Amino acid sequence: LQVLNEKKLQEVDSLWKEFETPEKANKIVKLKHFEKFQDTTEALAASTALVEGKLSKNLKKILKKIVAKDAHEQLAVADAKLGGVIKDKLNLSCIHSPMVTELMRGIRSQIEGLITGLPSREMAAMCLGLAHSLSRYKLKFSPDKVDTMIVQAISLLDDLDKELNNYIMRCREWYGWHFPELGKIITDNLTYCKCVRKVGDRRNFASSDVSDILPEEIEEDVKAAAEISMGTEVSEEDINNIIHLCDQVIEISEYRTQLYDYLKNRMMAIAPNLTVMVGELVGARLIAHAGSLLNLAKHPASTVQILGAEKALFRALKTKRDTPKFGLIYHASLVGQTTAKNKGKISRMLAAKTALTIRYDALGEDTSAEMGAENRLKVETRLRHLEERGIRRISGTGKALARTDKYQNKSEVKVYDPSGDSTLPAVSKRKKIQEVEEQEEGVAVKAKKFKAEMK
To answer: Are 181 and 225 in contact (CB under 8 A)?
Structure first.
């Protein structure tokens, strides 16, 4: 479009009045050149280039024609960055100001009157389709890949676990003053709360039927313990408050189960290969810790391995001690299956394969979990080999190379020669023994003579 009267553009605040009707708009601007897009894909490519401040090929061709005809004219642009690119590549003078912004707004309001031959209904449909495509491109939006939902869901799941644990412990402690024996008989927390909500006072256990909650053996033990309980008596108001707390516990437990199913389905839709490798909970925590699936895909395998153990890592680096071998990935089932001495090796290999699956989920177009299953099988095979102390099957030429000959002892058996035991003659030993005995006898005789003289 070419501006016909530039004087009226000087008053920016009242410029909108010149575009109230198509007749007024035709007095201000005139259609200079119009290029129609072939399809929506071409229109989307041109629009995304404008959004990113780039010069598309079609726009470059059109501007070259304009430069050849009207090189002295200025080009009004809505994006200053795009104007700089056009000036550098085509040496065309561009202008960007509040006046240009107001002029663009007026042109868009009367675009149907300025460009003839465009049905309004068809144009509205094309604009709507292009707007949806452009918005999806801007937001990188995919209905099946919204990792923000996973971040919020796993955070809420952790909060629910903490609150649920606090509520259950408070309920056991509160009702334990009235019926302390029940806590030892019923170990399951949800069953405990359902039983308390249904019966209330312990004296009602004898006449209540809790067979739909408890097995027959445990039900008999509970009724027997209720008759001889050492708990204190409480008022009906206290029992009502305890029952309300049990209602809260049951509702939160049901919602937690529903939230876990939602998280599991969402993880299989967004990151199926990651879910197969480490499970939905560990995978969701990795995504939440990194911020998004794309951010997690940018991390190397060494970072994925210790993700979640940053405090221990920096403390080890500061004190010059051994760095941690695993972070959030420690809670994966494959790491939990192995022994303590092999956990470091398995976590390192699992982190390497997990990094591959994360990148495949984040950047790949395929939504199948085949890659994750194959990598998990490799890790399980490696785990089995480590547990079996490296025993592997050898086939083909490997068997021939590994074959060893039968062991044969070639040493000769020597005959025992008793003559080589000693080199001293036997007679000399006897002489020495006789001399010692004679000396001892001489000493004894002298001692007797000395005693006789003393007397």
So the answer is: yes
Fold of 149-261: Helix Hairpins (1.10.287)
Break the chain into its structural domains and give their ranges: 2-139, 149-261, 271-390
The pLDDT value recorded for residue 24 is 76
271-390 has which fold?
Serum Albumin; Chain A, Domain 1 (1.10.246)
On the question of pLDDT at 402 being above 60, the answer is no
Q: Which residue has the tokens 């909970």?
A: 281
pLDDT digits over 97-142, tens only? 878 778 778 877 777 777 777 777 777 787 888 888 777 776 664 5
Mean pLDDT of 302-314: 88
Tell me the mean pLDDT in the region 321-328.
86
CA distances from 386 to 333, 341, 351, 395 (A): 16, 10, 17, 20
DSSP codes joined into one string, 208-257: ---TTTS-HHHHHHHHHHHHT--PPP--HHHHHHHHHHHHHHHHHHHHHH
Residue 419: both structure tokens together: 């003559």
- Other beta carbons within 10 Å of 100: 20
Average pLDDT along the chain: 81
- In whole angstroms, how large is the CA radius of gyration of the chain? 45
Inter-residue contact 9 to 15 (CB < 8 Å): yes
How high is the pLDDT of residue 400?
55
- Burial readout 125-143 (b: 16 or more C-beta within 10 A, e: otherwise): eeeeebeebbeeeeeeeee
Amino acid at 343: K
Q: Are strands 2-3 and 29-30 parallel, antiparallel or unpaired?
A: antiparallel
Residue 292 is classified by DSSP as S
Side chain identity at residue 99, one-letter code: M
- Whether residue 30 contacts residue 4, with contact meaning beta carbons closer than 8 Å, is answered with yes
Residue written as tokens 């000493």? 443
Summarize the confidence of residues 287-294 as an average pLDDT: 90
| List of residues 6+ apart from 367 with CB closer than 8 A | 144, 269, 272
Containing 5, the helix (H) or strand (E) segment is none
User: In what helix (H) or strand (E) does residue 287 lie, and over which residues does it extend?
Assistant: helix 280-290
Residue 449: alpha-carbon gap to chain centroid:
106
pTM over 0.85: no
Distance CA 87, CA 83 (A): 6
- Architecture in CATH for domain 2-139: 2-Layer Sandwich (3.30)
Report the C-alpha gap between 384 and 386 in whole angstroms: 5
* Whether the predicted pLDDT of 177 surpasses 50: yes
